[in-house]
Design brief:
This protein is mostly helical and 301 residues long. 73% of the residues lie in helices and 1% in strands. A two-stranded antiparallel ribbon has the order 1-2. α1 runs antiparallel to α9, α2 crosses α4 and α5 crosses α7. 43% of the residues are buried.
């Protein structure tokens, strides 16, 4: 099996695992704060074993690198809190679709802080994604299909995408640092952040809940990072981008099959618009022959 085939299998498996995360969050039956805490705790233990096995703990990290990784960890943890909270409000399907506005957040950060140029194609993709968001927000979902606060769920999913983009920008400063080690620092930050808020007085009393929580940490964090980072080392960027869309497809299928949620036509059109535009951004699809740059704002000093 050559590297491309192996990387494709690894990336597909990682995205499929990620697509089931909403199912495990809901079935755990635990408050979101506790879910994220235990994900971080089990994830930290798993990644600690992995890093030790790979000999990464012998790496000497400067306080600067640790500080930057920790800052990214704060953003990642807030991202998880918001996304998991959105599942019960806007449904897993809609929350996942809205969450995939991440590439547009990165485009905005690039223009604001790094003086990256905006092309007509990028602005067109942004306009299509915005139209998709309008269709989703204006939909009138049945009360039985989603939670009681649909709009708040959408805002939370957007907030999750924003903090993911923040974490991505921060992580760009850590080029050359082993990614498994970055992930370990980030989940350890999550443990420290959320320990004061975790409900230790009323721990899950049944094996099912503990199994769900452990799976989120061991499989959806530890194993998923191994597979994803392994694939990233083997695959070209365009193939990574295309395979990443296995995640929202699996998440929507899980929502339909496991929870019986059905999207309205306007929600389907809106979600499809967002996913297509995200694919266009990730894979560099061109809508126009010319790529006239639009002047971007001056970077913040």
């Amino acid at each position: 099996m050559n590297d491309t085939v192996r990387g494709t299998v690894e990336m597909s498996a990682a995205m499929a695992i990620l697509g089931t995360i909403g199912w495990f969050v809901v079935l755990s039956g635990q408050p979101i704060m506790d879910v994220v805490f235990w994900r971080c705790a089990f994830g930290a233990l798993t990644l600690l074993i992995i890093c030790a096995g790979l000999g990464l703990l012998r790496n000497r990290l400067s306080l600067r690198i640790i500080g930057i990784a920790a800052l990214g960890g704060v953003a990642i943890v807030v991202n998880w809190l918001l996304l998991f909270s959105a599942f019960s409000r806007a449904s897993i399907s809609i929350a996942t679709a809205v969450y995939n506005t991440q590439p547009f957040m990165l485009v905005g950060f690039g223009a604001l802080f790094f003086a990256e140029r905006l092309t007509l194609t990028k602005l067109t993709w942004l306009a299509i994604a915005f139209a998709g968001m309008v269709l989703i927000v204006e939909a009138a979902p049945d009360a039985s299909d989603v939670g009681t606060d649909y709009f708040t769920g959408i805002v939370m999913a957007l907030g999750a995408a924003f903090f993911w983009a923040v974490a991505a920008i921060v992580t760009k400063k850590l080029k050359g640092t082993p990614p498994h080690l970055i992930a370990l620092i980030q989940v350890c930050v999550g443990v420290v952040m959320l320990a004061p808020f975790a409900n230790f007085s009323q721990l899950p009393a049944d094996a099912w809940s503990w199994t769900m929580l452990a799976t989120l940490g061991i499989v959806h964090t530890g194993l998923m990072y191994i597979l994803m980072y392994g694939a990233i080392q083997k695959l070209p960027t365009h193939l990574q981008g295309s395979l990443s869309f296995i995640y929202p497809v699996i998440a929507i299928l899980v929502d339909v099959v496991a929870f019986g949620h059905r999207l309205h036509l306007s929600q389907i059109v809106g979600a499809t618009a967002i996913l297509i535009t995200a694919a266009g951004m990730n894979l560099g699809w061109k809508l126009w022959k010319g790529q006239t740059p639009i002047a971007s704002p001056h970077p913040v000093k």
